[in-house]
Structures are given as C-alpha cells and as structure tokens.
Write a structure and sequence with these properties.
2 domains; GCIP-like; A middle domain of Talin 1; 10 helices; I/LWEQ domain; single chain; 371 residues; cytoplasm; 72% helix; cell cycle
C-alpha cells in the first residue's frame, strides 16, 4: 500500500471515530425520550391528534430517504454528515414527543399499540445510523448495497403508523380479534385430533344459530381414524372440549361485535366512551383469561388429568361471569352475546358432568386388594 493510500485510510478511520462519538449523545437523547413512553401521558395535558403523529412520521420517512442517499453515495465532508445526523434526530425527537402526547387518555391496550409502533420507528432509525457510521468508519465499499435495505426498514415502520388504532375502543377490539384468531388455531388443532368424526361441531355453530366465525375447516378432518390410545370415554371428553372451544370462539366473536357497536354508538368520537375504558379493558382481560383456559383445556385432552380440566372449567366460568359484569357496567344488554354465554355455559356444564361421571365410574370399578 502506498503512503498516500495509508494516509487516506487513517484519515477516514479518524473521521469515523469522530462521527461515532458525535452520534452517541443523539442516541442517548432518543433513548431517554423513549423512556417517556413507558407510561401514558398525564390526563391533564392536551392530547396530540394521531394525524399529527402520522405527519411527523412522514417527515422521518423523508429524512430517512435523505440519509440513505447521503450515507450510501459519494460521501461529503464530515461536517455535512454531522448536519445530517442533527437534522434526522431533531425530527425523530419531535416525532417521539408527539407520540407521547397522543397517549393522553389512553388505556393500557391503546398505549401498548402506540408505544410498540413508535419503538419500531426508533429502533430502525438507530440501526440505520449505527450501520451508516460503522460503514464509513471501516471504509466498506459496499455501502451502496447495505444501507438502502435498512433505510427501507425505516420507511416500513413509518408507513405502519397509519395502521395504529386511534381510540381505546378500536385498540381493544383489535386485541380481541387477535384472541379470536388464537382460539381458531386451538379449534383447528382440536379438530385434527385422531378421535374420529366430530359430528356437527363446527366453528360456525352458535347458541343463536346466526354467528359466522369464518372457521378454516379441514376437509379431511372428519375422515381421521380413531387413535387406539384414546378410550371411548376419553374420545367423548375430547369431543366435548372441542364443542367448548367452538362456543368460546362464538363468545369472543360476540364481544368484538359488542365493542364495535359501542364505537358506532359513540359516533366514532374518541371522548364519547373514554369513561368506559376501564370496563372495556376488564372485558378484554376476561377474553384473554378464557383463551388461556381453553388452551389449558385443549392440552388436557392428552393427559386426561381431571384436576386440570376442572381448574380450566372453573376459570372459564369466572371469565364468563366477569364478562357479564363488565357488559352490564358498559350499559349494554346485547341479546346475541348473552345467548352465546348461555350456549357456552351449557357446553361447560355437559363437560363437567361427563368428567364427574367418569370419576364416579372409576371409583366404582376400583377393587381393594387385601394382603
């Protein structure tokens, strides 16, 4: 290597160290600001509209575009690169403060959505500049190929801001939809058990006959042969647990419809239902509890452990009772959801009765061995 080439490499390394040191306090400032997102903003503050946050996200998007071109092209002098860092992180700081301001009045679920999407923008931005400075410092010739993909990650994070729910009601409804999808997965797994034809147990079934759960039926599931490892009693219990799972899906689906009706009745006005946030959050917690107990109940099909099944059934009854209370507190008496509760409790009662019956039969069949 020539002395001239060596001097250039040394100079580039020195400039890279300088840029790395210059970047650190900006990263720390953003990290400190992100900590504000750990809690929702105090209710006494003026709330920032989410549309303003999206606009600032667009500014971050444009700054990322500029940064991608600057750092992956023919690099300018160090001072110009520093100016790019300052400009970017000033916009990012403003974006984060606006995100925090938008959490005024946000319940736990909405706050979690906002924080998660904001963090995605921050994390991708930090990755972009760490990579850019590192590539400059090491003199990597492939900057033009490695920086654009990371810039694209920032773009995606900024564009995703348009999908963030803007009200507590919408956020809770979306979270319930995720629970619904989890229950559908559990039901699908239950239908794939080698216990023979599940008969008329389908995800479309409901207590009032008109709730469409849009299940993904496996055409071959009804043709599965019975597994010899399952006794007739165990197969009967497995089918009843499948029915309970199906009815739990109907219950959560009706809860989603109830939340949607609350949103419509408030005229899509954010403040119209803010006094009901706690009850809506509690309703969501009940749905989560039901999903967890259904998962445990599904797992007990293999163990056939009576105590596990009874514990899950008790938890499901508690979940239904909790949902009834919260719906009452929300001032609703929707016929469909109460009918779904009735159908669910009927399935639970039948399962509970079957379990008790099997326990009695086992006790009667016990023989006492005398020594």
């Amino acid at each position: 290597m020539s002395k001239k080439g060596g001097r250039k490499k040394t100079a580039a390394a020195g400039a890279g160290d300088e840029l790395s040191r210059f970047l650190q306090p900006h990263l720390q400032t953003i990290s400190d600001t992100l900590q504000l997102m750990a809690d929702a903003a105090p209710s006494g503050l003026e709330r920032t509209e989410w549309s303003e946050v999206v606009q600032l996200g667009d500014l971050v998007y444009r700054q990322a575009t500029v940064a991608g071109m600057v750092w992956s092209g023919d690099l300018p002098d160090v001072e110009t690169l520093k100016e790019n860092i300052v400009a970017y992180f000033n916009v990012l700081q403003g974006f984060l403060l606006a995100c925090h301001g938008s959490t005024v009045g946000a319940g736990p679920t909405l706050h979690k959505y906002i924080s998660s999407f904001a963090k995605s923008v921050v994390d991708s931005s930090i990755s972009l500049f760490k990579l850019a400075v590192s590539a400059y410092e090491s003199g990597k010739p492939d900057r033009k190929t490695i920086i654009p993909p990371v810039t694209g990650t920032v773009w995606e994070a900024c564009l995703a801001l348009k999908k963030v729910p803007t009200t507590n009601c919408t956020a809770i409804g979306r979270a319930m939809t995720q629970i619904c999808l989890c229950l559908k997965d559990i039901l699908r797994e239950m239908k794939e058990l080698p216990i023979g034809d599940s008969g008329d147990i389908t995800a479309e079934k409901s207590s009032n006959g008109d709730v469409d759960i849009s299940s993904d039926k496996d055409e071959s599931s009804s043709d599965l042969e019975v597994d010899d490892e399952f006794s007739e009693e165990e197969i009967a219990i497995a089918k009843m647990i499948t029915a309970v799972t199906s009815d739990s899906l109907v219950v959560v689906k009706e809860a989603i419809r109830f939340i949607t009706s609350l949103l419509k009745s408030s005229g899509n006005q954010r403040d119209a239902s803010e006094d009901k946030v706690e009850s809506m959050e509690n309703l969501l917690s009940c749905c989560r509890e039901i999903a967890e107990q259904i998962n445990d109940l599904g797992a007990s099909v293999y163990t056939q452990e009576t105590s596990e099944m009874k514990s899950a059934i008790k938890g499901l009854y508690n979940g239904i009772n909790g949902m009834r209370k919260e719906i009452g507190d929300l001032g609703g008496s929707p016929e469909n959801i109460f009918a779904a509760f009735g159908g669910f409790e009927k399935s639970l009662g039948a399962l509970e009765e079957k379990i008790d019956e099997d326990v009695v039969n086992e006790m009667e069949n016990l023989t006492i061995c005398r020594s």
